[in-house]
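Practice problem: Rrf2 family protein
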Amino acid sequence: MFSKTCEYALRAVIFLARQSEDGKRLSIKEIAKGIGSPEHFIAKILQGLSKKGFISSTKGPNGGFFLDENQKIQPIKDIIIEIDGNKIFSNCILGLSECTENHPCPMHHEFKPVREIIKNLLDRYTLNHFIEDKKLNTTFLTDKINYN
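Answer key — structure tokens:
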């Protein structure tokens, strides 16, 4: 559904949210290991997200990546749009460039409400949801991530 870059970005930001809850700052190495990503790849993603204000970072011996309170309440839809653009919410499910309301593909009218449901879900879900899930131990992201 998402590009590999977007998947890694989401996993990294969720990992960061769950690990830096108490003000802890995480290094690229810690995040990359935690989500099973190559360090150089996740470094580039995180630097871009930091420049755009989705996450925060500080340099130095006690530096690293972290989230402030405003970043924790931002919808994950915004991160998706930053990385992959708006296509998941607007493109044809069959990948047809000419699919429109006036010239629909065979699945257009069936998929349109599904696309809207996905958009609304991702707009409602914030990083705080993942922090709460960790506290309640109600969900997991992958068996490769160790949150303890």
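Discussion: The helical segments are 4-19, 28-35, 39-51, 69-72, 76-84, 108-124, 127-136. Students who identified this feature from the tokens alone can consider the problem solved.
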